[in-house]
Structure to design on (345 residues):
């Protein structure tokens, strides 16, 4: 069974499960979901909480010992395992499947900090635990989902904001729900029942947008020039290693080339997506990019990236971020170009 993060409290009020899988790419929602589960079971008398971190050489037998043992201090126990973005090895999957086959009615198991992608959801251990418990995917919010989330935060804190102020706040904290939530809390404390407009907001607002190279990938596929510029500016401000950005651009350009070659060779779209590990919810974005970018344009992008890579390694480029932006924009408007900003001499 599954429910989204905003539905979790309602599900907890309805029933309790022996297993909770809180996975996704949005850390604020993930942590809030885990906090809600912990709070719920504490009220139910689960007053012993045992935490594990899935580090290298993790001992799954220690988890088994805790899961199967009777505590001296508590009749019921909650066990949290932070998977640290690493899938369990064979020893771990065997332990988790064994738990699913024989749940301990006095123990609740919470797994967190793993991608909520199809690769995770197709594993046998995940399916076994989800069948007996609850899966809470925590995906990044955007569009109306993000707007509704902010409306709910304001409602909970009795904060009144003008529509323009809300839009400005979301723009300033884009990709960082924690920063947005903290800003709403601060505004609630400062202004109480008074309406917060854009002018009032801007006086104390810091730009806390949180972008990474994966956000850049989405902008590239969409051909959104404004977003490409915005993400690249933030990556530069955060001093993200230029070669990480080169890698992201190369990855998307090469994948789109592979899609072109596959279609030319007569491979079906479904088979191509499976072979190249493109998720169902990404297919539309890749189709849009393919319609916009020819094979020649993509090969030109890859050539420019190879030139930039060589120039950067030989300290022959004056402004790598500006050069990267120049190349990234070719995903939106493919035109002939030369690599700019090389050092003279």
């Amino acid at each position: 069974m599954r429910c989204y993060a905003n539905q979790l409290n309602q599900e907890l009020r309805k029933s309790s499960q022996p297993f909770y899988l809180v996975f996704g790419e949005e850390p604020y929602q993930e942590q809030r979901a885990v906090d809600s589960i912990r709070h719920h079971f504490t009220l139910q008398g689960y007053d012993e909480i045992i935490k594990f971190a899935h580090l290298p050489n993790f001992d799954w037998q220690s988890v088994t010992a805790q899961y199967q043992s009777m505590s001296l201090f508590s009749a019921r126990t909650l066990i949290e395992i932070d998977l640290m973005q690493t899938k369990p090895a064979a020893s771990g999957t065997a332990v988790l499947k064994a738990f699913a086959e024989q749940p301990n009615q006095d123990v609740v198991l919470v797994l967190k900090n793993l991608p909520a992608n199809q690769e995770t959801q197709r594993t046998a251990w995940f399916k076994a635990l989800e069948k007996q418990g609850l899966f809470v995917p925590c995906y990044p919010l955007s569009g109306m989902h993000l707007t509704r989330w902010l409306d709910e935060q304001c409602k909970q804190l009795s904060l009144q904001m003008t529509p323009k102020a809300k839009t400005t706040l979301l723009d300033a904290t884009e990709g960082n729900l924690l920063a947005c939530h903290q800003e709403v809390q601060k505004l609630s404390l400062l202004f109480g029942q008074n309406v917060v407009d854009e002018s009032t907001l801007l006086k104390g607002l810091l730009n806390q947008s949180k972008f990474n190279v994966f956000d850049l990938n989405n902008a590239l596929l969409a051909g959104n020039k404004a977003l490409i510029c915005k993400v690249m500016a933030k990556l530069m401000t955060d001093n993200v290693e230029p070669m990480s950005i080169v890698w992201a651009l190369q990855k998307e350009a090469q994948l789109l080339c592979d899609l072109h070659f596959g279609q030319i060779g007569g491979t079906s779209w479904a088979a191509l997506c499976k072979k190249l590990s493109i998720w169902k919810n990404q297919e539309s974005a890749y189709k849009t990019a393919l319609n916009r970018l020819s094979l020649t344009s993509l090969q030109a992008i890859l050539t420019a990236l190879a030139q930039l890579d060589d120039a950067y390694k030989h300290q022959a480029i004056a402004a790598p971020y500006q050069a990267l932006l120049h190349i990234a924009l070719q995903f939106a408007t493919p035109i002939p170009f030369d690599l700019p900003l090389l050092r003279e001499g």
The domain at 5-138 is CATH 3.40.50.300 (Rossmann fold).
